[in-house]
Amino acid sequence: MSTLIKVCGASRSGTTMLDLMLGNAKDAFSCGEVVAWFRPWRRNHFKLECQCGQIPCSIWEKIAYVPANKFHKNVFTKLNVNFVVDSSKDLCWIIDTQKWAVSKGITTYNILIWKNPINLAYSHWKRGRGLDYWHKEFTSYHDRFFKSNLPFRALNYNELVKDPQKMLAKICNIVGMPYFDGKERFWENHSYHYLFGSGVTSKQVSEKYSRIWDKDDFPPEFEAHIQDLEHRIEQDTQIQQILNKLNKNDIQFHSNYSEQEKKFILQKPYPLWYYGKMAKRMVKRYFPETYSGAI
Ligand SMILES: [Zn+2]
């Protein structure tokens, strides 16, 4: 049985972390943000730099050099695993991989992880971005995701870190993956081979330690803005509609994933933004951005 789990989400929503938690099993493989290898847009994406540190990585040597549409199928065969986890986030890639996987008889699941807006705002703010930076990231990603009609289950990041055992066991139950005690402690796994993804998460893996269970302790400089942010979030119809949709599709209340959903293929023409994004990506392949430390 081949099962592809795509971890989707706006940037800084915990996608790499969830990818590694799910990939923390002998019969599973975490790819990380593999889209960057097949559709590079930054200079560092042209090098096959696996997080295991080996150059070249013996695992990626086996699986990287195939056309993109054969990639996941090839991973199942070459690595002899039942589960492949892909946290590419990129919406065009999520649409394309849905089509490729379904046409090859691979069962697919889309898990959309999202952070509470205040925590998301903080994640961007502490990286030096403006207080409102999160807003466009959050609305544009979710708006496009919902309009694509892809089947999905939503997972709240804050709920996951509050009770990782319970939430991870729920996801495992949906995707048919065995849960074992300690699966959430992804940093204890010694054999990760994922590409790109969150620098913070890779640091946790290399240090064999994680602070993910710690509550976000906001510094006073950020705390001073919380009340105003909360007020604006409450008044923001677009945000409220997104939160509503996420809550309605919460993984805790929709534990089954129908056979029809698993076989869903989006019909062409795709949404207009798909073609725009693909064209932009093509240009970036020839004029890539400079590496900025994070994907
Ligand atoms: Zn490796």
Structure, explained:
This protein is an alpha/beta fold and 295 residues long. It has one domain: Rossmann fold, CATH 3.40.50. The protein has 14 helices and 5 strands. The chain has a 5-stranded parallel sheet with strand order 2-3-1-4-5, sandwiched between helices. α6 crosses α11. The longest helix is centred in the C-terminal third of the chain and has 16 residues, at 220-235. It is globular and about 50 Å long. It starts with a strand and ends in a 9-residue tail after the last helix. The model has no long low-confidence stretch (mean pLDDT 92). Residues 50, 52, 54, 57, 59-60, 193 line the site of zinc ion. Zinc ion binds next to α3.
Briefly summarize what is shown.
With 295 residues, the chain is α/β, with parallel strands linked by helices.
How would you describe this structure in keywords?
295 residues; single chain; 14 helices
Number of helices: 14
- Radius of gyration equals 18 Å
Q: Helix content range of the residues, please? A: 40-55%
- Class by alpha and beta content: alpha/beta
Low-confidence stretches: none
Number of domains: 1
Q: Give the strand order, joined by hyphens, for the main sheet.
A: 2-3-1-4-5
Average pLDDT, rounded to a whole number, is 92
CATH domain class:
Alpha Beta
Number of strands: 5
Order of helices and strands: EHEHHHEHEHHEHHHHHHH
Tell me what portion of residues adopts beta-strand conformation.
5-15%
End-to-end distance: 31 Å
Classify the oligomer: single chain
Distinct compounds present: zinc ion
Write the CATH fold name.
Rossmann fold
What characterizes the major β-sheet?
5 strands, parallel
